[in-house]
Amino acid sequence: MRSKIAIVLAILGLLVLGTGIGQRTIWLPPATVTAATPAQVAAAPLTVIGPDLLKTRDGQFTMTIKSDGPMQLAVGREDDIIGWIGDASYTKIGAANSDFTQLAATSTKGEATVPNPAGSDMWVSEEKATGELTYTWQSPGRGDWALLLSADGKAAAPTDISITVDNEAGTPWAVPLMIIGSALLALAALMFLISPNKAKGTAAPTAGRRAAGRGPSDPATGALDVDKLVAAREAAKASSGSADAAPSAAAPSTIAEARKADAPVITPAKDAAEPKPATATPSDATSALPAVLLNPGSAADSDATAAAKDNDATVPADTEGSAATEDSESDASSNSKSDTEKDSGGHDSDGPDSDGPDSGGHDSHGNGSDGVTSLKKQEPRKPRARNKGGAAGAKDATPQDPTAQDPTSQDKGGQNKSEFHTTESPVAMVKKRMKASLRWGAALAAVLVAGSLSPAVAADPSTPAPASAAAEATPAVSQTPSSPGFPGLLDTQVQRIATAVATAVAAGDDAKNAKELETRVSGMALETREANYKIRAKVAKQAAMEPVNASKLLANVVTTTATWPRSALLVTQGENNALPQLLTLVQASPRENYKMVNATPLLPGQTFPKVDKEGTKEIALDSSDGLTMSPADAIAALSDRLTKSDSKFKDTFNDSVYIQSVLDTQATITKEAKDATYVFSHKAATDAAVNLRTADGGVMVVVGYNFGITGTSKANATLTVGDDAAVFTGGKETTTGFSLNYAEPVVMYIPPKDGAGKFTILSATRNLVGGSFKK
Q1: CA 698, CA 431: separation in Å to the nearest integer?
Q2: What angle do CA 714, 717, 720 make, to 5 degrees?
Q3: Which 3 state secondary structure label does DSSP give 321?
Q4: Closest CA to 80 of 53, 57, 48
Q5: How far apart are CA 542 and CA 559, in angstroms?
Q6: CB-based contact 519:119 (threshold 8 Å)
């Protein structure tokens, strides 16, 4: 029956194992799946791939873009791209559908043509290709990003777009099925290994005492017990027929009575002070029980042994055969051991027929039918260390009757043979066999499992770490900045813009041509350099403007403003700059690039305030939120302080070399004026002011003043201007008067309301930009 179950398990294991392997081989789904845009999409000059698509599988996908001609791809923030598109017509590509076969596509109508979007400062990166472009997405930073596809702004933008991702339809049951199948095969192999041997009663006769004195026991018919019964009856008849024979008991009529007749007679020890209780030899009914149940050290076992002694029931054939099987396998050195039963001490004993030493380990003498036969003394084998039950039983066992001997123990020559067998207990033998079988079964299972598992699929390198690595490894782009929003420019963009500005300024300075500046310079910075070029064209001794460098970018302040205009403040210094420069950049509209509107040196002894690296907020001109004074009021206060030496705001500002130089210049002109009166003014262009928050809650205000000097002649006296001013006035002398204009960009710091500091002028300069004679 056990073999049949093992066969069923083996077949079931092969089926389950085969199913698991099949899921990793012939039934394995495709490694990747692809989703593409619909075939019919309206033509437009621009195509936007939105963040819904770019966030697919955390950006782990490959994008393929096809076009009939040249194309270009730009990466930017979604708001920046939408802002650049404006009212133009475009197609937006969204996320894939649920079964990942098609990408969403929506069309928005608008202007049919746009300027070429290539080269915009808002793009983090750009790529160009012809025909086909394979693109791998990687987010540049925090926030929502998008891709802008175009040809040249006039031709239709590509819309044949597809993305390929790893197939998530895996085979989660493959490995469990292979493990279960392998386990079933291992269990089947284990059942084959531990299947029982043939019953002893059906085994071929073996050499030794069994072959000489006893025939094989038939479990089905009990042939051996019948022979005992016949022999006992014959002995009884012989005794009754003898004249000098003593009366004996009646001949046994049943097999049980014959067994009782064979039971040994217990004789008391000669040197004992008092008779010891005799220990009955276990009957066949108890001989099949494990030795641990017959241990005399246990009260329960003693009761079981006593009950078995009085039990005359015939032992079933299968129980007797099982006990014989265990006994025959427990001692491999003996080939002639008969159907032995375990004595109460756990050693092998022949029961009523035993002629070996007593349980105490002493020599025993058996009496045969022809007298007393002296047996050679034999040393018993030492019990194994793990056979603790047998060792204990040996100490407590009661000696059996030394005169009791099985007649079948005589060989053909009539000599008595005695064999002493020391074996393990049945429980220990079963454990030993089970351990060996389990080791073979475990080894077979390991081989089957190792052979059935397919190579592991490579893990996705983008898959976050355990929370242990995670803690790991939270990228900087996922951190929440202290200021709201996102910086309008990344560091790479800032460096690129600074380089472009410096290149344009250098080209204009070399050519002394303001046209070279217009792509990257505007406002007061353009006005100042244009005036300098005019003066230098006529006045050889006129000094050039301070150069603009981007080779050393010391700091940058970028706003988080999502609308336009946007601004940024850069601190740079090159080899030909005596002091670091503060460059103020402004992007007037989405389709324009950043342009430098101011360039001023950092005044000696001043330190640039700390700002948020993740971007800073730009506040309104009239806002005094958390400030000592609003930017508008501070600009007016500085105008008054620069104009009047006794200004009421004198104590509002820290001492500044620039303020002092302005006041000294004005005082000198006034003192030396004999034939004219002079009026000084500092008017701010507040509409172009830039107000940027600092890390401590203060504000940096960038504002351009028009420093005006107006001279009026007294009694038509002749007034003279310098060579530089004469370039704008058209002459050096006038009898009516003149007006001179200086560009005066200033960077001022306003402390927070709870601060104890004063206003500070961080950077400032002035340059002549115009003049005229009065009429």
Answers
A1: 84
A2: 115
A3: helix
A4: 48
A5: 37
A6: no
Work out the angle at residue 771's Cα, subtended by the Cα atoms of residues 769 and 775, and round it to the nearest 5 degrees.
160
CB 381 within 8 A of CB 332: no
Angle (deg, nearest 10), helices 2-23 and 174-193: 160
| Residues found in the chain | 775
- The answer to whether the bond into 565 is cis (omega within 30° of 0) is yes
Burial per residue of 342-359, b for 16 or more beta-carbon CB atoms within 10 angstroms, e otherwise: bbbbbbbbbbbbbbbbbb
Spatial CA neighbour of 149 closest among 292, 44, 34: 44
* Measured distance CA(257)–CA(687) in Å, rounded: 129
Please check the confidence at residue 232 and state whether its pLDDT lies above 60.
Answer: yes
Token pair 């491999």 is at which residue?
A: 332
Question: Quick one: average pLDDT of 158-182?
Answer: 86
Q: Where are the alpha helices (DSSP H) in 601-698?
A: 631-643, 657-672
640-675: per-residue pLDDT in tens?
Answer: 999 999 999 999 999 999 999 999 999 999 998 888
Residue-level pLDDT at 559 = 93
Average the pLDDT over 403-411 and give the result: 41
CA distances from 666 to 9, 518, 708, 745, 764 (A): 108, 34, 11, 18, 17
Q: pLDDT by residue (tens digit) across 103-125?
A: 999 999 999 999 999 999 999 99
